[in-house]
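User: Here's a chain of 223 residues. Predict its fold as tokens.
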Amino acid sequence: MKKNQTTERLLAASRTIWEGYLTHPFVQGIADGSLAVQKFRFYLLQDYLYLFDYARVFAQGVVKSRAPDAMQVFAFYVASILNGEMETHRAYMKRLGITKAQAEAVKPSLVNQSYTAYMRAVSAEQGPAEIMAAVLSCALSYEYIAKWIVTHHPDAEQHDFYGEWIKSYASDAYAAENTRLVGLMECLAADYTEPQLARLTDIFIDCSRFEALFWDMAWNEAM
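Assistant: Prediction complete.
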């Protein structure tokens, strides 16, 4: 059996979408340091709001899982998002002079609402494997983007503003967390039938498309 065959199937199905991330002007702007800070500020606040719902989707994985090991992984990521990934956002908010109250008063954009509503619907209506398919696109694509930046823009990690963002998602620690997620995806889908695997693929592609729309939203500062 091919290692990580379910995840590889998901990635292969969404390859064209993911390639588009790398040429997106927002990502290119982070890579070469030319992105206007105002655009990053808009993105940061929307992503901060997104992460609360992202954590809620993982929390549903705890509720839906029967195996203790799966429950532990889902629970770990709830804490990791709220106390780990969000720390990068809070550090940037501090640099930009944005208070916690100001951030939480921001209205989520239409794309943000649509994306998180889709993931929450999957988490409410379906099982742990489908929940994993919904969350995996975001987790893996940020590593994919950050590592591409590091490879093609070797000095990007040293940028005095965007370097922290790049280092966070290109780090070995972040990659290790993603490896754990992939392992759970493979375990949950191990006995899935072809129709069930096709459903996982559809969810992953949908979320990959939402990721592309999120970058568009950030670039255009579109509410």
